[in-house]
Amino acid sequence: MLRSRAGTSGEGVRLGDIVLRNRLVTSSSLLGYGVSDSKFGYGMSPVALLVPLAEFGAVTTRTLTVEPREGHFTTRTDWALHEVPDLLRRYGTVLRGVDGGWINAFGWCNVGIDAYLRDYYPRTREQRTIISLGGFSAEELVTLVDRVNAAVPAGDIAGVEFNVSCHNVNFDFSAILQDVLDEAVPRSNHPVILKLSADHDYVRNARQAAAAGVAGLTAINTVKALRLDPRTGTPFLANRYGGLSGRAIKPIALRVVSELREAGVTLPIIGTGGVRTADDCREYFWAGADAVALGSATWLASYPGYVLAPLRALRIRRMLHAVRGYTPPRTVAP
Ligand SMILES: Cc1cc2nc3c(=O)[nH]c(=O)nc-3n(C[C@H](O)[C@H](O)[C@H](O)COP(=O)(O)O)c2cc1C
Q1: 15, 33, 152, 173: which could join 268 in a potential S-S bond, CB 3.0 to 4.6 Å?
Q2: Is residue 331, in this structure, part of any structural domain at all?
Q3: Burial 155-174 (b: 16+ CB within 10 A, else e)
Q4: Catalytic residue positions?
Q5: Residue owning the nearest CA to atom 17 of ligand 1
């Protein structure tokens, strides 16, 4: 099994240039910006409020764009109690539970890079952070990288993750990928992680990334999906198509990680898709991942299901303990 050069040091786990506190991170967006918008925990999973986020290898932010974006949802956070039914109705048009997982189409709803760096990042300094960046041209990614460079000294975050694999924004990222890699990667003072999609030519994209000096890969983003109301044909989501996440995609994500290794890709890989238990993490390590990210299967639940948040939090703490003690096979790569 080919594997990247990954090691454990006193400062945490080093995956090439990416330094994490340990091998268990959180995947983009599931914990918002890494801190809640209000004292009621708005913007965070209720499960996350019961887990010390500083104990993760890193917390990956929601994808940030140059300008604030409503996407298919809303950036408003000042909801009064009587408006909550409207908020929940809107929420139901961008995130729905389906068999074995979730489909979502938030469409990069976010406050924008400047507001994040000003209002949220300073409140997350005790955590290790990966800042997720998204744009529709190489110029936008260059702007985002420059803003992060200006606000965050090298070494203060684990890296920036380029999200050029999201289905919810209805954009063909293959048309800009090479330009993004050529122009934005060399400018970054922070290690760049490229997030891959199982719906794209991920082996080719990984090779392009390696040639451009990318420090690591995240595999995978959500899988493009569709659900319809069987009686009316109305799509579940306002965007019609969405991204499928959760248990249903775990075998797909494992396949992608394994095929990347079989293809000779040696960049560090953060495996993500349907992770819920320490055994899931081990499966990803066996497939060839160097770290694992917790996403929707860990943080999302039905509204009644959130009653079990304390139990879920306990399971996550146990998982953290198990993964901290686990050392995957090292450095077989040439
Ligand atoms: C509600 C929701 C929002 C997401 N938003 C983003 C995002 O803004 N940027 C991104 O790169 N990935 C986003 N993702 C994808 C996750 O980070 C993750 O890659 C994907 O869900 C697969 O992992 P999982 O099955 O463990 O959830 C989102 C996923 C969900 C469920």
Answers
A1: 15
A2: no
A3: eebbbbbbbbbbbbbeeebe
A4: 166
A5: 28
